[in-house]
Amino acid sequence: MTERTLPLFYKSPRVLTPLTHGKHSLQVPPNYRFAADTNAVPLVAEEMPLAARHYPVVFSDEATPHPVAILGLQHQKNLFVDCDGRWRAGTYIPAYVRRYPFIFFENDSRTELTLCVDEAAEAFKEGPENPLFDASGEPGALTRGVLAFCSDYHAQHLLAAELGRTLAQADLLIEHRADVTLNDGQRMSLSGFKVIDRQRFDNLPDAAFLEWRRKGWLPLIYSHFFSIGAWSALIDRTVEVKP
After folding, report:
1. Which residues touch 231 (CB under 8 Å, ≥6 apart)?
2. In 3-state terms, the chain is what percent helix, strand and coil (to 5)?
3. pLDDT tens, 96-145?
4. Is 129 helix (H, G, I), strand (E, B) or coil?
5. Which are the contacts of 165, defined by CB distance < 8 A and separation ≥ 6?
6. pLDDT by residue (tens digit) across 148-161?
7. N or C, which terminus of the chain has less Cβ within 10 Å?
């Protein structure tokens, strides 16, 4: 594997094989302590409307903007994971979080995907409770499910990237900053992300609008707009968990 910047959460990813990991299992139920120190995670296309019910959905400030769920107003503070590693009940858990500790890595030519596992993950350990491979070295039900999940995730990730790239090319994304004042007067500011400018979107040429409707992008864009209501809930949650 060529040297690269590792994705969020991943510390020691390695190709999943029966020879190396034939005796390994995955802990259940899941523990989300690994996500406690981040205030934002990527989203894929199909989950944007679901995530928008619980989190502000914005776009990353990078060459290819990507939809992101805001999980907290403070750096390295996820308001939805408690001290025991439990995700806040009744809130949507982003697919990026549910996928961990597994991930697909592309080869240098981007023609092949390989399933890897983060060997540093707390939930990944030796034991027979929830095995990745059966006695003959074939992928177990868990691994087959992971492969299907990661395949779907990758496809939806590409669609989200296409959406972000198109929004940037249409000059619809603008830099934004969330300035918040809590009930006790404390002020917080969150920056480094972009939002869709509503006026520019409303002035989109009819041909582009119809093309985006054909591609199924309009529900994703409107979910971004609707998610503005989640900012107030995030402020309330900040006050609720404030030490």
Report:
1. 56, 178, 180
2. 35, 25, 40
3. 999 999 999 987 766 789 999 999 999 999 988 889 999 999 999 999 99
4. coil
5. 64, 65
6. 999 999 999 999 99
7. C
* Contact indicator for 116, 105 with CB cutoff of 8 Å: yes
Contact (Cβ atoms closer than 8 angstroms) between residue 48 and residue 76: no
pTM of the full structure: 0.92
- Domain chopping of the chain, boundaries: 13-241
Cα separation, 229 vs 175, in Å, equals 19
Count CB atoms within 10 A of the CB of residue 224. 24
Taken as a whole, the chain contains a residue count of 243
> Does a cis peptide bond (omega within 30 degrees of 0) precede residue 101?
yes
CA distance 142 to 122: 17
Q: Whole-angstrom Cα distance, residue 98 to residue 61?
A: 24
Six-digit token pair at 25? Answer: 């299992």
What does the block give as tokens for 24? 């390994």
